[in-house]
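Collaborator request, handled under Task 6.
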Amino acid sequence: MLFERLNHARAYVAADGLGPFLVRSVAGTGAVRIATMFVSFLVGVQLARGLGVAGYGYYGIALSIVTIAGVPGELGLPPLVTREVAAADARRDYAYLFGVLRWGKRMAARLSVGMAFILLIAALLLQEVHPSPLVLALVAGAPVIPFLALAKMNGGALRGLHQIIRGQLPAFLLKPGAMSVLLFLMYLAGLKLQPWTAVALNAVTAAGAWIVAAIWLRQRLPEHGNLEEVREGRRWISSMVPMALTQGMQVLQRQVSVLLLGILLSATDVGLFRIATATAVMLSAPQTIMLTVASPLISRLDAQQDHRRLQTLLTRCAQAQFAGVFLLSLPLFLAPQWILTLVYGHAYAAAADVLRIILVGQLITTGFGLNATVLNMTRHERRVTRAMTIGLVLNAGTFALLVPLWGLEGAATGYVVSILVWNIIAWFDARRLVGVDTSIAGRH
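Structure tokens returned to the collaborator:
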């Protein structure tokens, strides 16, 4: 009986169709994200212990600036490429597919190199005005922008071609894995870790991720003859800009607190807050899994006008990500101080209350499902930009009000309020514009 069930399960997973593909993709993505979660956790421990609280704070500020500068360097290209490649592959329109890729690579290279140059000039000017460890870290981090932009764009193309796992590996697993190895080699060599060397290692590993993603994409692409001339570049740009603004809002919501804490409080406080947010992001792996797997499927089902299966997909994704985030977060709800001390060291135990606040907000938002993803994949990206703009403004306002009163706990509260508000708005817009309920309560 047991063997019959196992054989039936194997046959189902190997079959064609949305259900088996979703099972395979979620299982593979889950394995990648679990490995990524472990490796990122290891890198965080290595950096926290190697740099100390203040050094980790400078590293966090520098990486936040590099990440923000990378938003216009990508300009929403990865999700746009995923959407257009998935649609072209579904139609078997390979001339159009290659036209998208050629245009996307050219655009990504120009934008990202330009942003890297601007960041480099800004860092050199800052050195003249106010020398600090932050300046060297920014100079070392400038190359991260073009390398990571191109790696993510190639990964987006792979996901659009049904290469869900390979599309994630370079940027999400291989990069932090290589980072951990390099940090360990520095430790063995007896080299002292500085904020600028830690950021420089990010640049080296981003270059490796780009090379691997480019090779894998070339292997997956079909044979082609004449490439289609890009006639929709203006329309793509009109989609890229709101997607880039949306991505920028997401980045700013994660990084604005770090930057403002660097202004209002100390590098030590930044280090504590960054540990709390980095730990929470690690525990949100189930949400990232669902987003990565479902994005191309949402685009395909919407193009086919199959809203029944789309609703089923969204409800299952919301329920799965909520359950996963809850189970992963439970130990840190119960004993955050003990776990933070065990993992990062006694100095980081002070981040326990901040972590609890962020985890509560994160758990609630997962219940609203893939609201922003649905809007982006169905050409309603401007509504996501609107929702996140409201959330960002609210984040800055509550931050300015609550940090002087409650310190780090005030920063965490402002962060949670902002992400809750924009998720509620995006969930409502998805119901009204697309006709689907992205939450765990959606009927299918």
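The cover message to the collaborator said: "The two ends are 31 Å apart (CA to CA). Residues 233-444 form one domain. Please let us know whether this matches your experimental observations."
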